Amino acid sequence: MGKPIIGFAGLTHLGLNSAVASAARGFKTAGFHEDVNIVESLFRNEPHITEHGLAKMMKTHTENLTFSADPKVLSECDMIYIAVDVPTDDNGVSDLKTIHAMIEKVLNVMDESASLIILCQVPPGFTRCIKLSPERIYYQVETLIYGRAVERAMYPERFIIGCSDPLNPIDPRLKTFLSAFKCPILPMRYESAELAKISINMCLVAAVSTANTLAEICEHIGADWSEIVPALRLDKRIGMYAYLKPGLGIAGGNLERDLSTVLSYAKKHQTDGGVVAAWVNNSNHRKNWAWATLNDLVLKKQLHPKIAVLGLTYKENTHSIKNSPSISLLNRIQDHSITAFDPAAEADAVMDSNIIRAKNAITATEQADVLLVMTPWPEFHSITADDLAKSMTGKIVIDPYSVLDGKDLVEKGFTYATLGEPVRQPIRNT
Predict the structure, then answer these.
(1) What is the C-alpha to C-alpha distance for residues 123 and 64, in angstroms, rounded to an integer?
(2) What residues contact residue 50 under an 8 Å CB cut-off, 6+ apart?
(3) Using CA atoms, how far apart are residues 247 and 264, in angstroms rounded to an integer?
(4) Do 333 and 295 form a contact (C-beta atoms < 8 A)?
(5) Over the Cα atoms of the chain, what is R_g?
(6) pLDDT for position 72
(7) Is the dihedral of CA 119, 123, 124, 130 positive or negative?
């Protein structure tokens, strides 16, 4: 048996990164997307999403890649992944119309011997309801992370595969494809695999909520969360890779969707979802940290401050602003004078005409009374206290993710606020 031909229906973030990884592993790969402009840009090796290394890998393995706006490009594929991004509303509820429409398009063109794999995230029970022979349909848990999607697609920790009956062998073509990534393959029933993705994210949310709760206490009692973290990592019950960095609530859409799904199932089946509701409340509470800190340090004392904001996306190395803490903050302070910069956010990320988009980070800080670093972009790490002393009028920096050198800023006369420790006041020479 030769190598199977792999198809991907939907070439947004999930589908494109997965398709390029398939080609990089040596498989002929066909990608379908309805937007002709996006397909044309892919033929030019110009991906429409921001991911480190994606364009280079596309160019390197272009001989294995075919893109088309015609779904018939999938007709010769042995396996077809449904890989559309599933949108969520402000409450984290998924809109499944897009995925249903894509499945219908694929079923109309796929070969009668081909297998269908649902790669995008769906609620438990979704896959089993698709009208296709059970031996031809699978659900595969996606574990891509914005900003690290190429790495995660190329080097997955494991494959979680939902099957009609996990005791039966999976399609040998699917096994050949998955085996090329050299990681464990975990078959389980559809519903278990669908819930496994949610379970992974619930454990992550629990860690995030724990870090946020204790970091906030640190800010009020004189403790420093960054000093506590190494002790936790050396506890084998927690581990070196535990997510212990405090943040500004949950954002991006994916985790919110899983919280919403679990709460809806808890209500439907009368199970206890109280801890999940508490995580949601904790997230909403921590989203106010930047606003509360800005209000205490600046807005209560200065009527018309000039505010600089670095970072608009919900995290670094992505263009997504879904539930971004930065955008949420800007919506609350839009009546003030604001200059903002982000290296990847779309031009229309900020719709308010009063907010100026700067061309670079330092330009955004010119004459500012206060600086907020709302997204930990790597390029912001190179900004020094001396740079800001020359550029800014005021000397207040709010840096939740500790991107800048707080010690140096304080020594140069700045007031410095970050998550997990009390506000540091400038050192006064007596």
Answers:
(1) 33
(2) 317, 318, 319, 344
(3) 26
(4) no
(5) 24
(6) 95
(7) negative
The distance of Cα 419 from the centroid of its chain, to the nearest Å, equals 20
Dihedral class, residue 311 (left if φ above 0, else alpha if ψ from -120 to 50, else beta) = left
Tokens of 56: 């280079």
pLDDT band at residue 323 under the 50/70/90 scheme: confident
**Res. 315 pLDDT band, cuts 50 70 90:** confident
State the pLDDT confidence band at 151, using cuts at 50, 70 and 90.
very high
Q: Which of 202, 375, 376, 197 has the alpha carbon at shortest distance from 280?
A: 202
Map tokens 């998924």 to a residue: 94
- Mean pLDDT computed over 402-411: 95
Q: In this predicted structure, what is the pLDDT of residue 430?
A: 45
What's the CA gap between 48 and 39, in Å, rounded? 10
Burial of residue 166 (CB within 10 Å: 0-12, 13-18, 19+) is: middle
Specify the DSSP class assigned to residue 429.
Answer: P
- Residues 54-94: pLDDT tens digits? 999 999 999 999 999 999 999 999 999 999 987 777 767 77
Residue partners of 175: CB distance under 8 A and separation at least 6: 169, 185
Q: What are phi and psi of 160, to 5 degrees?
A: -105, 115
CA distances from 19 to 12, 87, 98, 382 (A): 10, 20, 19, 34
For residues 372 and 396, give the distance between their C-alpha atoms in angstroms, rounded to a whole number.
Answer: 9
SS3 384: coil
Sheet holding 29-32, edge to edge: 65-68, 29-32, 6-9, 79-82, 115-118, 137-140, 159-163, 185-189
Q: How far apart are CA 189 and CA 196, in angstroms?
A: 11
This prediction's pTM: 0.77
* Backbone torsions φ then ψ of 89, nearest 5 degrees: -90, -175
Q: Assign 134 to helix, strand or coil.
A: helix
From CA 74, how far away is CA 246, in angstroms rounded?
A: 44
Distance, in Å, from the CA atom of 348 to the CA atom of 47, rounded to the nearest integer, reads 19
